[in-house]
Amino acid sequence: MGRQGRRAQVVVLVVAGVLALAACGVRGAGAGGGDAAGGENFTIKFSHVVTPATPKGQAAEKFKEIVEQRSGGRVTVEIYPNSELYGDKDELQALQSNSVQMLAPASAKFTTIAPALQVLDLPFLFDTVEDIPQVVSPDSAAGKAIYENEALATNNIKVVGLWDNGLKQLSSNTEMRTPDSLAGLSFRIQPSDVLRSQFESWGASSTPMAFSEVYNALQQGVVNGQENPYSNIESQNMHTVQRYITASNHGYIGYVLVINNQFLQSLPADLQTVVQESADEATAYNREVAAKLNEEARTTIEQAGTTTITELTPEERQAFKDRVVPSVWQQYADVIGPDLVNDLLAQQNAQ
Ligand code: LMR
Asked: Which of 212, 199, 196, 209 is nearest to 84 (CA)?
């Protein structure tokens, strides 16, 4: 090949390289890019704060699998677990700026933007996990209040599912059989006023803190304890630095599966349907695995032998409940919606 031929070959290679790089750029998160057939490709970045093995982590994987398959590869879902891309402090901002397209934060994480979502933080909203689907589904009163929340809509956030992680247990380094045994202890909480009031009612203090910081805070004694379902305690190794867990089932971790609405609306209509249907199926899957994964995590904690799990008698559990129901519920009736709180209280009394 002559010098001119080689030069032409170099030019072709450089142009091809530039075009390939440009294509990668356009296909960045949330943006459409071309494919060989001339259709458009999209990427959904899905960020969360727990491990892939948890009920939320597993449901996110299921969502990815279904979306990618149903869209015939036109939508790719990139999952960023463990707060590795964004954590509690910045993920909602990242969603609104379209740096990520989907999240599934616990209800408490929305307190600043949409305080009414604290409905799911109300202590003793459920007595057992079997009650969850009835109270939290898209067409229940609580579910509707979340799906139709105006503050979320104003912030360009659309709800596409409600996932759960079952019920929370208390952990600390001292045994907690009565509310009085929490007096003087400090607990890490998610940033929710309802949760602050719950611990206050038990005589304890609380510190809001990002999930990714909880293990270190417990290990270093920055706080004495925390509340979470077994799957979160076990997957973060919290049990290795907490000598006691009280099987209190006193509160709920419910996740609000959300998407940047502008991004969703920018998708072709058929892909919008794929996203919603995949979210529905991932929600059903989440409900199937949440209880099982929490049971397994509890067994792992028991086998580790580092932590005593204290079972409460119904009377002992009731003593925790009497301190917060209905007082904390009524305290937040205006924030959550008086009708909804009354409705939920009536359901409790009917039990
Ligand atoms: C927590 O911060 O304790 C939980 O909301 C973490 C999670 O996403 O389950």
From this structure: 212
Q: Are the C-beta atoms of 254 and 136 separated by less than 8 Å?
A: yes
Q: What is the SS3 assignment for 264?
A: helix
Counting from 1 in the atom list of ligand 1, the atom nearest the Cα of 54 is 9
pLDDT (tens digit per residue) in 93-131: 999 999 999 999 999 999 999 999 999 999 999 988 888
Q: Residue 54 has what DSSP assignment?
A: S
Question: What whole-number distance in Å separates Cα of residue 250 and Cα of residue 246?
Answer: 10
Distance 316 CA to ligand 1 centre (A): 26
Residue 11: alpha-carbon gap to chain centroid:
50
Instruction: Quote the CA–CA distance of 105 and 224 in Å, as a whole number.
Output: 24
End-to-end CA distance of the chain: 87
Cα–Cα distance between 206 and 191 in angstroms, integer?
Answer: 10
In terms of DSSP H, where are the helices of 178-244? Answer: 193-201, 214-219, 230-235
Q: What angle (nearest 5°) sits at the alpha carbon of residue 263, between those of residues 258 and 269?
A: 100
pLDDT, tens digit, 9 for 90 and up, residues 240-251 = 999 999 999 999
- CA–centroid distance, 256 to ligand 1, in Å, is 12
Could you give phi then psi for residue 36, rounded to 5 degrees?
Answer: -55, -35
Ligand 1 mutation pick, 228, 230, 286, max ligand atoms within 8 A of CB: 228
Q: Tokens 């993920």 correspond to what residue?
A: 91
Query: Which ligand 1 atom sits closest to the C-alpha of 48?
Result: 8
